[in-house]
Amino acid sequence: MLESPAVIQTQDLYKTYSMGVNQVQALQEVSLDIHANEYVAIMGPSGSGKSTLMNIIGCLDVPSSGQYILNGKHINTMDDDQLAYIRSQDIGFVFQTFHLLPRANALRNVELPLIYSGVPTAQRYDKAIQALAAVGLSDRLDHRPNELSGGQRQRVAIARALVNNPSIILADEPTGALDTRTGAEIMELFEQLHAAGNTLILVTHEEHVAQYAQRIIRFRDGRIESDQTVAAVFGEDQTPPPAKATASANVNHPAVSRPSKQSQLLPPDLHQTHLTTPAEQATTTYASQKRTTDKPPKQHTVSPDPKVYTPLPKSYTTASVQTQPEAAQATLATSSYHSMSLRAFSTRLRSQLSLILKVLYLVVMFILLLGALLAQDKIHQKLAPSVKPLESTLPTIHPAKLVPAPNQ
To answer: Which of 251, 234, 151 is nearest to 193 (CA)?
Structure first.
């Protein structure tokens, strides 16, 4: 099998920062190749240099020395405008804190890279809709970030990273701000993106997240400590995460999302112990049973005794079977969503009312000023006939009436 071409090549990279009179070596002698459609996890403690390497790979920074080649282009010699163009065309970023515009809806957030790239409006709209559909958010186009859950916000960020069809996707702790179940859904989505042919580079602190990758590069003190495949790190018999086991089945359908499993992002030693109640264990066992016939089985709900089942109405589905804690969480999430929507509506209403009041104030002041000017003009007109000029009050003297005084 021929090896795919290298999209990223670094040779003896160094990065030095000046801290006053001190010199800090963030990267030292970093040489690596990352090939097309490769899934790489970069790990290391804080201050090990992995974030600095991500900034250089993402063309957000340049090395102090060494060579960095991206898709055959030498990045070291490029100016700021050229680096910005490379970022917009070849690299998609996914951040831990999403970095979405709070006052723009999901569609506008995904359109943003296309606006910077100068894509026409019609094409921009179509591409943004396709990107959101690929991450399962076709029904959330008009929702703002405060109207979305954490997982949905991260999906919007992933759609924004995909909209320009970049050659590589850089994800910096994409599950760091998410709960376990939502993090599992995001990692499943990354699996689908990788199966569709994308090159993924993931920065993480978590071992069970790194197991989704094909290769793990560990950093320490600015140097590469190890560069191994996941099989070499965890063993050939290591059971892969459930998303990895089924990723190949969705190569032709990257937009189809699989059902999430809460245990996918848990460490291996907790996979069997995260179910704490008999009801949860019974629900999981029942939902995981194989269906051997084409006739759908009867749906059941869990009673307090896990061995006793009660039939559900026909309108219910297996996905709707929830334990009491899950139902409470769903109710809480729904109420939180409605409260956020109400707060957003009230904020917009207050701002609009404030603008209307300001306009009315200006109109009233203009009317009052105009009335004052008109009243002053009328007063002047009434007083004008009663005021006579000074010349009209003096007697008129004709020259013929002037008689010279007699001489004495």
So the answer is: 251
